[in-house]
Design a protein that fits this description.
This protein is mostly helical. Helices cover about 85% and strands about 0% of the residues. The protein has 19 helices and no strands. Helix 2 runs antiparallel to helix 3 and helix 12 runs parallel beside helix 14.
């Protein structure tokens, strides 16, 4: 094990802790901006547009950001990305302070924040690979899932409280402060950089982009996993987006009951992430992910099949979906971290993020008309069934089950034995 990874906890968790503060600040701002748009305009079109401007930049820039993350210092990339997001929040805070903020200002800031996130997230994930020993990657992924679940539970009520106590520019100021907490440790903690071959350094930028696509294309197991993730996101995203309508129209309930279901899901995510961080998952990480996919699908189908009088019973399957969510996502992330060559991870993670995220606007565009035609429950039953089918079928696909072994074979074919550093 490299010396850097022998004493990994202090440097890694110094950076990680700062990033968690930044995550909380970002979630507070997201909640506050959406509420401001809701209260100011009352327009569903405005809210839908805000969702799109927060998603589309990450889809578009992903393949172009990957080579830059792989080529340049990942610490510098994170500093610039976090700094850019903080400056955008500061600029919007000023516009609110002087009373001239408009809807298009919100859109612009959301675009800037999305671009910053498109660079920051893959740079952080790729840096984690070089700082954390392989055997702990799944546990760290579980811890990340736990924190995301906890933040999703805490941020909305905290944001609501802060909106009653502070003006909008005050909440944006909190985001600037938490971003600063995330940036400062990056100046003092060393983040290892992957060794880059000379021919890779001299490779033209667009050829590096093609190299990322070629890397994924040759690895059939990874290609199948990305395809599975795209189909699942397309099938299931509308179910989560339509939850308020399911509560209101099917269960004939209100905001309080919606909060119960969201809390059940969030608590499940926290507990599932904690379980994964302690357990670490199966030795073959993909088996843990497939178990999580099937479990999520079962929970979603049950929610869709429940009668209108069974709202309280729905808390159980929503809790199950939450628990299984980290099991589905965390090991898959760790698998890619542990197998993809470090100098390629920026390109692979940005490509994965772009392709999977691109499914959200496509499915959301179809969600409303189909739900009006076939009913809201259709998305739950169909989406959950698709998840179950994909998970079960994948157990019988050798390229998926042996995805890590296939990668090792590809590396042996690409790199002759004499080139090994060991």
């Amino acid at each position: 094990m490299p010396e850097e990874k022998r004493h990994w906890k202090t440097p890694f968790f110094t950076i990680w802790t700062g990033q968690q503060f930044s995550l909380i600040g970002s979630q507070l701002v997201q909640f506050a901006l959406v509420w401001w748009l809701t209260k100011t305009t009352g327009s569903a079109t405005v809210l839908a547009t805000a969702t799109l401007v927060a998603i589309i930049p990450q889809v578009v820039i992903g393949p172009f950001a990957g080579p830059l993350i792989d080529r340049f210092s990942r610490r510098t990339v994170m500093i610039i990305a976090d700094g850019g997001i903080a400056l955008a929040s500061a600029a919007l805070a000023y516009l609110f302070f002087v009373g001239v903020a408009q809807v298009w200002h919100i859109y612009l800031i959301m675009i800037i924040r999305a671009i910053g996130g498109g660079f920051h997230w893959p740079a952080m994930i790729a840096s984690t690979t070089l700082m954390v020993p392989d055997k702990h990657l799944t546990r760290v992924a579980g811890l990340n899932q736990t924190m995301q679940g906890a933040t999703n539970i805490v941020a909305p009520p905290l944001g609501a409280i802060l909106l009653s106590l502070l003006p909008m520019y005050g909440i944006l100021g909190i985001d600037v402060f938490t971003a600063t907490i995330a940036i400062v440790p990056l100046f003092f903690v060393h983040i290892p950089q992957p060794a880059i071959a000379e021919e890779e350094e001299e490779m033209p930028y667009f050829k590096q982009i093609r190299a990322g696509f070629h890397y994924v294309w040759r690895w059939k197991g990874l290609l199948l996993v990305i395809g599975m993730a795209m189909v699942i996101n397309f099938a299931v995203q509308p179910a989560f987006s339509l939850l308020p309508l399911l509560v209101n129209k099917h269960f004939s309930a209100g905001a309080l009951q919606l909060g119960w279901l969201e809390a059940a899901f969030g608590i499940g995510v926290v507990l599932g992430g904690l379980a994964l961080s302690v357990w670490g998952g199966f030795r073959r990480r993909v088996l843990t992910s497939l178990l999580g996919i099937v479990g999520m699908g079962i929970g979603i189908v049950i929610v869709g099949l429940l009668p209108s009088s069974a709202l309280l019973i729905a808390l159980g399957p929503m809790f199950l979906v939450g628990i299984m969510n980290p099991l589905a996502n965390g090991p898959l992330q760790a698998l890619i971290q542990s197998t993809v060559s470090p100098e390629m991870q920026g390109r692979v993670f940005t490509l994965l993020g772009s392709l999977v995220t691109a499914m959200s606007p496509l499915s959301l565009a179809m969600a409303g008309p189909i739900a009006d035609w076939l009913g809201i429950q259709f998305w739950y039953v169909t989406g959950g069934a698709i998840m179950i089918a994909i998970g079960l079928i994948a157990f019988a696909v050798p390229a998926v089950i042996h995805i890590e072994d296939e990668h090792a074979t590809l590396m042996e074919e690409t790199c002759p034995p004499s080139a090994s550093s060991e």
